[in-house]
Amino acid sequence: MTDLANGLVTGDGTKVLNVEEYDKFVLCIPKRCKTIFELDTITGMRYVEVQRLYENPKWYSESRNQIILPPEAQKKEKQKLVKRTIDKLPTTFPYIFEKFINGKEPPERSSWNRDLARWSLKADIDPKVGPKTPRKTIESWMLKAGIPEIEIYSRQGHDPVTSLKHYQSLSFTDYEMRDINKRLTEWGMLSRINA
């Protein structure tokens, strides 16, 4: 059982990172895998969707700086969306995407899970980072920063009930919120007016 008192953890036991932990964790990832984790966090995609994006780079529109996931990209059997658009991507995303496509293929989920656990240990992050951490981290940051919920739900492919179930118990400190607002502004997801 996950120790809920030790850090930010969702109702299902998934570790959510604050900005300081995110930066510390990224420093422990080998260069060949760093872009996979960064892209996964920035997009908030499910890991299987990241794997499928690697195989289907045409899903990214550089001119619109959006990823448009067709139904076959989405993991969920119950998925009802015809497509899901992932926007609010940083202006530097074309560079990140090019590094991703030209880099190492995302490993199988079991290997990725072992890698994340090893890097968590190296970064002294407990509970450990798991495959759901990037997705739940960015969604929680966006919700807490005040980005309109409808934008987040459509981007993540969630409904309000799912989002509430995952994030209602998370609470960031004032310092963590300052860092989150700053990072989301740097990434172009939050306007300077809101930050």
Automatic annotation (TrEMBL):
Gene3D superfamilies: Intergrase catalytic core. The lineage of its organism: Archaea, Methanobacteriati, Methanobacteriota, Stenosarchaea group, Methanomicrobia. One of its GO terms (biological process) is DNA integration. Signal peptide: none annotated. This is Integrase. GO terms for molecular function: DNA binding. It comes from Methanosarcina mazei (Methanosarcina frisia). Keywords: DNA recombination. InterPro entries: DNA_brk_join_enz, Integrase-like_cat_sf, Integrase_catalytic. Residues 12-182 form the Tyr recombinase domain.
